[in-house]
Known about the structure:
It comes from Virgibacillus tibetensis. This protein has helices at 78-91, 104-115, 133-146, 149-164, 169-176, 197-210, 237-245, 263-266, 268-279; strands at residues 10-14, 17-24, 28-33, 55-60, 97-102, 120-126, 225-230, 252-256. By secondary structure, it is of the alpha/beta class. Strand 5 (97-102), helix 2 and strand 6 (120-126) form a beta-alpha-beta unit. The termini are far apart.
Amino acid sequence: MDNELKKPIDFVNIEGQKLHVNIIGDGEAIVFLHGGPGSEHRFFLPHVLPLAQKFKLVLYDQRGCGKSEHAKSNTYSMIDEVKTLELLRKELKLEKMNLFGESWGSMLALLYATTYPARVNKILLTAAIGVTAKGYKTFEKELLKKISLKDKIKFFKADKKMKKGSGTYEDILNILDPYYVFSVDILKRKEKSSINSFVNQLIGEDIKNNYDLGSEVHKLSEIPILVAQGSHDIITPAKIKELLIKYIPHAKLIEIENCGHWTVVEKPDKMNTLAENFFGPPLVRTGALTEQ
């Protein structure tokens, strides 16, 4: 599997901009939507690679993220990301997509599916946030509650330095990352990846002001949806019932035990098994039926 990571980097042209796409394996496609906003597809690697034995993994960096080109207009929004995903689907000639959305990517998956329901086969959400801006605001509030006073002081100092240009977003992440996981030892497993703070800020503001799928969720009624939430996620399984399952009652919620926000990093075997069973073909029972 290590050789898979050494495949050449591919770019596709989306309306005159280069989008970095990494396709691994063969079979039915699973399209991965990374979080952030502003992160990159490397978050999923190498953790999801075992799935490439049975599926084609389509990983890409959203506009302005990772190795994808920055938007020429230097503007970023939820609608733009939905449009980019639809253009990518057309470019890759996928009739319907299986979507695997993580954190902000879970919101993008729902945004896309309510816009193009006929183009979605199944959706797996993890580290889910919800169907309205309330989830995003709840995430921020709950994260702040978790942070120690000492780290809050460090955070505000790092934020001030970054705004002045003498600090980096990485300094902030070094303070926050331990609060995203159940065990800090897990951080050793996380591959180093970049985050575009400008994209994070603009899409974050857009979410707070405009993210509301409450009147759109009926469009998801024919799409199988699985939600895998860490037991110790910043938004707990109990909270995600209120923020998401209440609106999409046919979605199945699975709690990933002893796990924080980064389920893919912390519990890769569990997540890969769930994804394989969910996205794979239904089991066919064979043999004669016995009377009860």
